[in-house]
Amino acid sequence: MFRVVAWNIRAGGGRRVEGILRQLADWNADAVMLSEFRGSPPSTWLVQQLDLLGLPYQQRAQNTRPTQNQVFVASYYRLGRSLGSSNLLPNPWRTWF
Length: 97
What we know:
It is a single chain. This protein is of the alpha+beta class. The chain has one domain (about 5-95). It contains two helices and four strands, in the order βαβαββ. The protein has helices at about 15-25, 40-50, and strands at about 5-10, 30-35, 55-60, 70-75. A four-stranded mixed beta sheet has the order 1-2-4-3, with helices on one face. The chain is globular. The mean pLDDT is about 85.
């Protein structure tokens, strides 16, 4: 069975980021999709920890401003080509994928 978790971590996780990591570890998902992910220090820490947790294949928007929400995906399995990188989406959506 392939387990996927989708979670809105609200404003990049902030002070809750360690609890978010603990919960993701408990769920032991094969892929994680986090919305409201940001380029903030807590979000960056979470990226590193998810890699150590066994989710090394990661994709997020190119824009990593600490205040801009985006989508982050981490997976145990190799990720395919994203829609944003293939220019199939209109320009405003490329900040999300």
